[in-house]
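Q: Joint fold for the lines below.
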Amino acid sequence: MPAKLDHEARRRDVSAAVWRVLATEGFGGLTLRAVATELNATTGLVTHYFPSKQALIVHALELAEARTRALVPPTENSRGLEALKQALAAVLPLTPESTELNRVWVSSWDAALADPELRTMEMSRYTRWRARLKPLVVQAQQDGDLPPTNPNDLVAGLAAFTHGLVVQALFDPKAFPHKRLRHLLDTHLAALRQS
Amino acid sequence: MPAKLDHEARRRDVSAAVWRVLATEGFGGLTLRAVATELNATTGLVTHYFPSKQALIVHALELAEARTRALVPPTENSRGLEALKQALAAVLPLTPESTELNRVWVSSWDAALADPELRTMEMSRYTRWRARLKPLVVQAQQDGDLPPTNPNDLVAGLAAFTHGLVVQALFDPKAFPHKRLRHLLDTHLAALRQS
DNA sequence: CGGCATACATATCAACTGTTATGTACCTAC
DNA sequence: GTAGGTACATAACAGTTGATATGTATGCCG
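A: Joint structure:
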């Protein structure tokens, strides 16, 4: 077994550089040189850890997913509608970090729609997101906080509402300040509650 | 005044080629060469009608907007909630043409978020879209078909819901067939109606 | 110490990008 | 017909892209 030094740690350094590039230049600005420059290194280093551009892109998306998941609060100290609200609010661009994340996601859709592999990955991500939201929706339904309609449809609608808000807020942050985003989510959930 | 031949008609040919490239390759695939090849011509032709890449991109977006507007039915034979429903359904990818359009829009967001001019353009487009929806929402409110809450918030929420559905449907058309998209929109509007 | 991976830097590659200069055929106006 | 602008084709440009081959230093294992 040959020496490993600290391969994983160095790889994480490259990861961090990848993320900085994504956050500042967007997905279209992700190039081997940009990452290398960010590391004060050369393309040789980058290709040493990521053999191809596609591998680098896939890694970048995994990175974005990990960061997204880290942002979502654990659903343990709350349940039902309140937990659902928190889970959706975690996606909204309410912090600089979340804004950065959303910008990366939205900018990735160009490449994701064009490449079959990336497209499938993004599709799966959406499916997993909805699956994670579903139990919260069902709980809220059982609590009488959401109408007893098809939960899958409710989940899809809530995911749509949230991401649609994200896109509008990214393009027009002044028209969608944090307070309004929270208000929109709150009143939307309240409006769905049947009386 | 020098001869004009049919400058505008030829320019429309280039436009059509631009659109074909956008529809098949997405926004990231829009290059002078791709447009020229689509026309069986050279880059000289393209630059003759569009002096720079930026001009070509702006034109491409104007083209998308014109096509989008053409898809939205006139709000004259209906009013209120029904007109609103039709206006929103017109945006959903229910036809190949609309799917094509939405794919172009979503894929444009990468470039739009990175370039200040394009970003402003997209922001204005959203503002105009919401302004066009607002009177329909107000009508529906007056008819008692929507809750008497802040109409601007209602409009933003409906735009969000619709575009969020568009994105999910683009990535997973099998999970979001036409029938389900219509159903989701119908039930969503019905759920918002206060009882 | 010697062998041998690993970890890069360096350099080069062909392909592709937008831009631009130059040529040339054509139409139109005089 | 001829002068001059239009409509391209052709060509070359400098820059950037991802990929790759070759070097070389540095560690660990025997």
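Q: Anything notable?
A: The two ends of chain A are 67 Å apart (CA to CA). Chain A touches chain B through 49 residues (CB under 8 Å).
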